[in-house]
Amino acid sequence: MIRTGKNSTTQKVPLYLVARRKLRSLLDGPRRINANLVVPNLTGQQLSRLANRNLIPPFATATTLSAAQDWDKLSNYVLAHEHPLIKPIANYLKSAEPAFDAKTTTNEKIERTLRETEALEKLSMRELLSASSFFTQFGFFKASAAFRYAAIAHALAKHRPDTFETRAAQVELAGSDWDALDDLQRLYHLPHDTVLHQHKKATSEAGFDILAALKKNSAIAVNKQKESLAPNVYKVLLSLRKRRPDLAGCDVALIGPSVRESEAISDDWPDKVLRIGYRGADSVSSDFKLSTHISFYKDHKLSDLDEKDIAGLANELSHLVISNLKADTLEKTRGFDNVYYSHFTGRILFDAECNAGVEALLCALDGGARKVHIKNLDLFVNSLYPQGYKHNYEKRELSGGWRLGDEIICRSMSQWHAPIAQYNIFKNFWNASRITGDNLFTQLMDAGVLAYLDRLESTYCPFKQ
User: Which whole-number Å values give the CA distances from 341 to 162, 253, 363, in the listed order?
Assistant: First the structure.
């Protein structure tokens, strides 16, 4: 409707003019559409057309498709994209070269594009994190790390001490290698480079306490669950979190689920053996003669067991450490005195959460362990698991065990377990001589984070298998 003056009459504007004006307004000054509303209803090509017009966020839309495991739509979305940082991935998917050769070429294009466009300077912190997740999903871990460090620098540049976000960023920097930061700066021209180095230096000189910082973040994350859990369930959670496994002065062997052959541990050395997701003898991948004293569980490792099954584990083990349990599973564990709820549960890292291996280590050190020896915990570089090891995804049966598809593993790293964040926590305690490891773990720690990311890139080629 149009008014021509104070006492004027009101005229109706034809609908076609209203529609045309709205369309012109949208095209001349695009406003973002809620991607979650349109993603389920449009094809990958249609979503790309919206993203190319800046009507939906390009990287966050890809992350939404990844979360939904809609691999065909995600591939089509990327293949039709015109974004200068997504086009190299589209060319990679179309390339007839062997995957590793195509990755090398694509990495060079990404590095060049970042230098030419200064994209790391222009994107918001949220967009940087979405871009980091995007590159992880497609197996480009060094590019992902560049976006992640740019987001961390963005957060630290706000100069807000003792906030959840700042603590999470400082945890990641505490284990970062100086050389890695310098190499990433040289390759990708990281913004706020001075901020990263200042905070890295400050955490090094002040003896930054990773355990205390992450426990503080976990307490905040748990407090937020009060709104979503029934009062009685939330009360159980809090009561279990008041406990802490007593490992004071113990030498602990943390044995992961990898079926890779590694050097045996002497049965008279560790005071305690800690495994991930122990569910009986067929879930054990190595060191079969060693008794299991402690096991760490997330929800999918226990959710299909009834209370009698859990009672059997509680009778066999001295400690059950649990994390991120759903209400039904939590209820089944409440009656046992040797069940402990992790003090490191939740999305407590910088836009990520600890994977089982990292969280189990943190729980052991927080329980007072003198030293932890890590064995058959492969930081995603080996994805073969023993037959009895429980997972909540479709798996591929192989000789000697099973594995997941590359898309699924990269999705896990993309959505929850940013690999560089996990690596940096291990590296912090490695540098402090709080942990040792088998030959593979030692090689990964000694080689540094960029060599680790290179190894991941040679291991995972999603959408190109």
Answer: 25, 20, 10
Give CA–CA dist 141/433, Å, rounded.
27
Q: 90 near 78, Cβ under 8 Å?
A: yes
Q: Which residues pair with 435 in a beta bridge?
A: 372
CA 34 to chain centre: 24
Contact 273, 290 (CB under 8 A): yes
H/E segment holding residue 319: strand 319-323
Look at residues 231, 286, 230, 234 and name the one whose alpha carbon lies nearest to residue 257: 286
Question: Is-contact 108 90, C-beta < 8 A?
Answer: no
**Beta-carbon contacts of residue 362 (< 8 Å; ≥ 6 apart):** 211, 214, 342, 343, 344, 354, 425
Evaluated on CA atoms 36, 38, 40, 43, the torsion sign reads negative
Q: Is 429 exposed, middle or buried (0-12, 13-18, 19+ CB in 10 A)?
A: buried
pTM: 0.89
> Phi and psi of 294, rounded to 5°?
-130, 145
Distances (CA, A) of 250 to 17, 270, 306: 77, 8, 32
- Cα(52)–Cα(49) distance, integer angstroms: 5
The pair phi, psi for residue 162, each rounded to 5°, is 55, 40
Query: Token digits for 67?
Result: 């979360």
Strands 10-11 and 2-3: antiparallel
Give CA–CA dist 144/130, Å, rounded: 10
* Non-local CB neighbours of 282 within 8 Å, separated by 6+ positions: 386, 387, 388
Element (H, E) at 461: none
The residue ranges of DSSP E strands in 371-414, in sequence order, are 371-375, 396-398, 401-403
Walk along the chain (465 residues) and give the pLDDT tens digit of each residue.
444 444 444 456 666 666 556 555 544 444 566 666 778 889 999 999 999 998 999 999 999 999 999 999 999 999 999 999 999 999 999 999 988 899 999 999 999 999 888 888 889 999 999 999 999 999 999 999 999 999 999 999 988 888 999 999 999 999 898 888 888 888 888 888 888 888 888 888 778 899 999 999 999 999 999 988 999 999 999 999 999 899 999 999 999 988 788 887 877 789 999 999 999 887 887 788 889 999 999 998 999 999 999 999 999 999 999 999 999 999 999 889 999 999 999 999 999 999 999 999 999 999 999 999 999 999 999 876 666 665 655 555 555 566 778 999 999 999 999 999 999 999 999 999 999 999 999 999 999 999 999 999 999 999 986
